[in-house]
Amino acid sequence: MEGFTPPCTLSSLSQIPMSSPPIKLIVGLGNPGPEYESTRHNTGFWFVDLLARRHHAVFKAESRHHGQVCRLNLHGHDCRLLKPLTFMNRSGQSVASLANYFRILPQEILVAHDELDLPAGSIRLKTGGGHAGHNGLRDIMNALGNRDFHRLRIGIDHPNNRRAVVDYVLTRPSKEDRESIEQNLESAADCLDDIIAGNLQRAMNQLHTSR
Questions:
Q1: Mind telling me the catalytic residues?
Q2: Which among 89, 158, 113, 80 has a CA at the least distance from the CA of 129?
Q3: Domains assigned to the chain
Q4: Per residue in 11-49, pLDDT tens?
């Protein structure tokens, strides 16, 4: 069924703490500019844009943090949304700047990003781990000197050809894939109260049983 995410395995659950500190910063990864707006690599932007729309918030350029930022009260918690404008490979410059300025710990950060290793539209929460070749995650890890932030992994599927990956992520998904991705981003936004509060295990359970 379209948009269905299969139940999570025990191995995926082991990467999610039962509880963690409240999330104070949600970062959506992508590339700036209209030519990239609808591409697979910008699904992280899609997620934070969705959150801003739901809460009637507006992003404002913050040059000192190299990105667009908005501040929200989400379910009783003070939280900022960030869209780095440094291009994907330098995402860490923006994330580290804002996190250091507001004294936000890695464990209080959620990064939403595209994920080649998941079917289009699948959503997974993960804490820590490697970057799996994702240059945005790689740069954030280097800039923070830490990999213990949380990730919202947004499936975009894989072209099944490593040499085609760069072109693939910088092109638009099919209409069917776009609808599936957007549907599951809505599901993730529906779990935001648990995500923000640090109830990541419960949020994961909800995401993995949503249709």
A1: 41
A2: 113
A3: 10-209 (3.40.50.1470)
A4: 333 355 666 889 999 999 999 999 999 999 999 999 999
